[in-house]
Every structure is written in structure tokens, then in C-alpha cells.
């Protein structure tokens, strides 16, 4: 059974990424934006948020198995959020690898 998450929950996995990408369309490369975020910082934040979701999911599962008052549906939601965030991270990694390989193949 697949649970579809609303777009708002996937947007919180990558805080501000959509606004930053959308806001830089049509801007010249020479123009510096105040408060600009580096790509490496965005990726670090994404990895940290995925890691935190994985930890929260594991903690909820352990609490449920230990008999603590945790609702089963909350455990399942946390597990699904962690899985979706990991899938997103893997897709981003795959796209970056493909882009890197294309750049390497470019003739000089």
C-alpha cells in the first residue's frame, strides 16, 4: 500500500530549495544576491534533514516496540517520511552523477 504525501511535506525536506532555484531564474551570473546560499550548504542541510528524519523514525519504532504510548499510525507516518526523503536524496545524487558525467565527456 502506497501512501501519497502532500507536496507541502516534501517541501519541508528541502527547506528553501524551491524558492532559491525559482528566484534565480533570469539573473546574471555576475550579480550577487544578498544572503545567497551555496550549493554545498544546501546539500549539507538536505543530508542533515534526511538523517534527522531517519533517526526520528528509528526512535518512534523503538518506542512503539518498547510499549511506550506511541500510536502505530504515527510510527508508520514517520517511517514513510524517512523513506520518501531518502528516495529524494538518492534521486538528487543520481541526477548529480549524470550531470557530472556529461560535463566530463564535454570536449575542451
List descriptors.
108 residues, mainly alpha, 4 helices, 0% strand
Layout: helices, strands, pairs:
Elements: H1 7-11, H2 17-23, H3 39-65, H4 72-105
Write a structural description.
With 108 residues, this protein is mostly helical. The chain has one domain. Helices cover 68% and strands 0% of the residues. It is built from four helices and no strands. The longest helix is centred in the last third of the chain and has 34 residues, at 72-105. The model has no long low-confidence stretch (mean pLDDT 81).
Q: Give the domain tally.
A: 1
Task: Determine the mean pLDDT.
Answer: 81
Number of helical segments with 4 or more residues? 4
SSE order, one letter for each helix or strand? HHHH
Q: Write down the Rg.
A: 18 Å
First and last CA, distance = 50 Å
Sheet having the most strands: none
The low-confidence parts are: none
Q: Could you tell me the strand content as a percent range? A: under 5%
Q: How many β strands by DSSP?
A: 0
Shape: elongated
> What oligomeric assembly is this protein in?
single chain
Class by SSE composition: mainly alpha
Tell me briefly what this model is.
Helix content is 68%, strand content 0%.
Amino acid at each position: 500500500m502506497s501512501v501519497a504525501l502532500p507536496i507541502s511535506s516534501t517541501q519541508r525536506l528541502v527547506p528553501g530549495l524551491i524558492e532559491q532555484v525559482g528566484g534565480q531564474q533570469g539573473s546574471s551570473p555576475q550579480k550577487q544576491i544578498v544572503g545567497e546560499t551555496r550549493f554545498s550548504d544546501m546539500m549539507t542541510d538536505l543530508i542533515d534533514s534526511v538523517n534527522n528524519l531517519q533517526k526520528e523514525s528509528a526512535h518512534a519504532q523503538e518506542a512503539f516496540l518498547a510499549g511506550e504510548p506511541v500510536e502505530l499510525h504515527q510510527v508508520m507516518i514517520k517511517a514513510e517520511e524517512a523513506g520518501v526523503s531518502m528516495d529524494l536524496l538518492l534521486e538528487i545524487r543520481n541526477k548529480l552523477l549524470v550531470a557530472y558525467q556529461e560535463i566530463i565527456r564535454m570536449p575542451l
